[in-house]
Amino acid sequence: MADTFQLEIVTPEKKVVETRAEEVQIPGKNGYLGILPDHAPLITELSVGEIIYRGRTSEQRLAVAWGFAEVLPDKVTILAETAERPSEIDVERARKAKQRAEQRLASGDPNVDVDRALDSLHRAEARLDAAGQKA
Question: The CATH number of 5-86 is which of 3.40.50.150, 3.30.420.40, 2.60.120.650, 2.60.15.10?
């Protein structure tokens, strides 16, 4: 059994990650998935959330939104609509986006697009989590 696998995370704009990993946690459509070397093959849709991957000496986090992941025994490929490293996240902007989404959801206004407000809330929370700021 191998102790690492190849991990690639790609957005339409760029390759965000290309490394060896011992473990990765990804936000699947129906909940988080933990992937280890020699995992059974699968394809899953991504949700909004945080990817956490571990190498031999470090743990890295990314905020992601939507896409797909292909898991093979020796490689995980993640095709995400967006993927942001903690250093790329504007924490203050994420806090304000979270606050606006919470206000829209709590307003009781029948004209509020609830699905859109929930998406905004989840994206802001994922960004804050990835940046090490509790949502």
Answer: 2.60.15.10
